[in-house]
Write a structure and sequence with these properties.
about 45% helix, seven-stranded parallel sheet, Rossmann fold, Rna Polymerase Sigma Factor, Chain: A, alpha/beta, globular, four-stranded mixed sheet
């Protein structure tokens, strides 16, 4: 079990659930970071007394300083603050629960200081997975996935010393709120409809990604990077019940599956206790009451974002960061009621086409592809 924790994104859904687990494990908190919710951060600082608290902007950091002026907690902001939180000596584990590309540089910094990474920020591996995994190997840093699906795969692969024994990974997917709907029906869905995930409680951005199935596309790329497998060995199955979190099929025909209640606190805790397990506050799964477990292939025509992500995964290079950056911009527009549901796919696919492709990019070229893709989405919108 780890000895101290830093949480990047402590006021979001994953961050708050991480703090629930920290309460259960009685672990000290070295650093907390947040976006702009200074009041919630102040409450967390009063309860957990971190050495460092970080906000996204100078104004929100100043607000936090005022709210906790009586506490001996250093307050920072921006990328410099995130990197400080990721490398703080008092933490040997960093939970990266921030959303988007903002998590990439702090994750690399944590790896280079030999931290264990509890990885909930999938964009880090989607955009720079080969670079990140190479750095983790170089610095002997553990990366333990916090996504329910990748935690399931991680657990199914325990004891598998030779990855040549793996035939394929089967990523399960709830199908989101729109499973079974036609393209015509999806053409008129609203933001409120898209935010109604049937099984999981998550932040707005990832919930929309689940509705478009882009989230599953990102997870396909993440699985390729985490487990060093080609696209042809990573498949997606719709599993509406969210009980089987993912599976591994081996070359002898055996299939290993990890089952559990749909509660993110399970993979969060494992990221901090591995290789040990510990009792959790999560309700146990009752197999006699969970009903039938069903599986189906995804509808690529109705959910083209999944196909787009697979195409970008096959191409590699800067296609993945371009797609991710464009998707973040497009989802933000959808959440602001400025575009429709299928406009997300249209904008992302167009952006990927116009961003110059580099097969083996440096970190700077990855970040530039992200910037250009976001810029392209904004330009498309301004042209309308």
């Amino acid at each position: 079990m780890v000895k101290g924790v830093s949480i990047l994104g402590s006021t979001g859904s994953i961050g708050r659930q991480t703090l629930d687990i920290i309460d259960n494990l009685y672990l000290p908190v070295a650093a907390l970071t947040a976006g702009s919710n200074a009041e919630r951060m102040a409450d967390q600082c009063r309860k957990y007394r971190p050495k460092l608290a970080v906000m996204s902007t100078e104004s929100s950091a100043q607000q936090l300083k005022t709210l906790i002026a009586d506490l001996p907690i250093e307050v920072m902001y921006g990328e410099e603050g995130l990197i400080a939180a990721a490398t703080i000596p008092e933490a040997d584990c960093v939970i990266t629960a921030v959303v988007g590309m903002v998590g990439l540089k702090p994750t690399l910094a944590a790896i280079r200081t030999h931290k264990r990474i509890g990885l909930a920020n999938k964009e880090t591996l989607v955009c720079a997975g080969q670079l990140v995994m190479a750095e983790a190997k170089k610095y002997n840093a553990e990366i333990i996935p916090v996504d329910s699906e990748h935690s399931a795969i991680f657990q199914c692969l325990m004891g598998c010393g030779d990855r040549r024994e793996v035939k394929r990974i089967l990523l399960t997917c709830s199908g989101g709120p729109f499973y079974g709907k036609s393209r015509e029906e999806l053409g008129v869905v609203t933001k409120a409809d898209a935010l109604k995930h049937p099984n999981w409680k998550m932040g707005a951005k990832i919930t929309i990604d689940c509705a478009t199935l882009m989230n599953k596309g990102l997870e396909v790329i993440e699985a390729m990077r985490l487990y060093d497998l080609p696209l042809g060995q990573v498949d997606v199955l719709i599993h509406r019940q969210s009980i089987v979190h993912s599976m591994v099929e081996f070359t002898d025909g055996a299939v290993m599956a990890q089952l559990g209640a749909p509660d993110m606190r399970l993979p969060i805790q494992l990221a901090m206790t591995y290789p040990e397990r510990s009792a959790t506050p999560v309700d146990f799964l009752d197999l006699t009451t969970c009903g039938a477990l069903t599986f189906a292939h995804p509808d690529m025509a109705a959910f083209p974002c999944l196909k787009l992500a697979s195409d970008c995964a096959a191409k590699g290079g800067t296609a993945c960061p371009a797609m991710n950056g464009a998707n973040e911009e497009a989802v933000a527009l959808f959440l602001d009621d400025k575009i429709g549901f299928y406009d997300i796919y249209d904008l992302v696919s167009r952006a990927v086409e116009v961003v110059p492709f580099i097969a083996e990019p440096t970190l700077e070229e990855i970040l530039e592809s992200d910037r250009l893709a976001r810029q392209a989405v904004r330009q498309f919108m301004n042209a309308n």
